[in-house]
Design a protein that fits this description.
This protein is an all-alpha fold. The protein has a single domain, classed as Serine Threonine Protein Phosphatase 5, Tetratricopeptide repeat (Alpha Horseshoe). 77% of the residues lie in helices and 0% in strands. The longest helix is centred in the middle third of the chain and has 23 residues. The N and C termini lie far apart (28 Å). About 8% of the residues have low confidence.
Length: 132
């Protein structure tokens, strides 16, 4: 199911179908509440559709969720949460989300979320690794 969501996100982003991208990201959030991948791609869709206030609020949640996830990983959580598995899949080399991650890094940097921008840029670099 995770890979299906990611394939749909990639397909809709590449096609410029932002409304469908928003729906997929919202569906992901219903399945995995607070997921940082879904939040970031939802924020991107909203931003690109001109809904900047909504996008900012979503990116703020993603920034807070990223810090919480890092703290959880540092604490050595015994069971990998679904959100961690989704992030790993969304940033695998060759992912169709590379351009989306790159655009997210630009947008969140514009909004002032420097840590989130850095994580998104690293995700873009990882996803492009297979193409190099």
């Amino acid at each position: 199911m995770i890979h299906s969501f990611l394939e749909l996100l990639g397909t809709f982003y590449q096609a410029g179908n932002l409304g469908q991208m928003e729906m997929v990201a919202r569906g992901m959030l219903q399945t995995i509440p607070g997921d940082v991948v879904a939040l970031q791609f939802l924020g991107l869709a909203l931003h690109e559709m001109g809904r900047t206030r909504d996008a900012y609020a979503i990116f703020r949640k993603a920034a807070a969720g990223g810090r919480a996830g890092a703290a959880q990983a540092a604490a050595g959580a015994a069971i990998e949460p679904a959100s961690a598995a989704l992030y790993r899949a969304a940033t695998r080399p060759g992912s169709r989300l590379a351009e989306g991650w790159s655009r997210i890094s630009q947008v969140v940097a514009h909004y002032g979320f420097k840590d989130l921008a850095g994580r998104a840029m690293r995700a873009a670099q990882r996803t492009r690794a297979a193409a190099d």
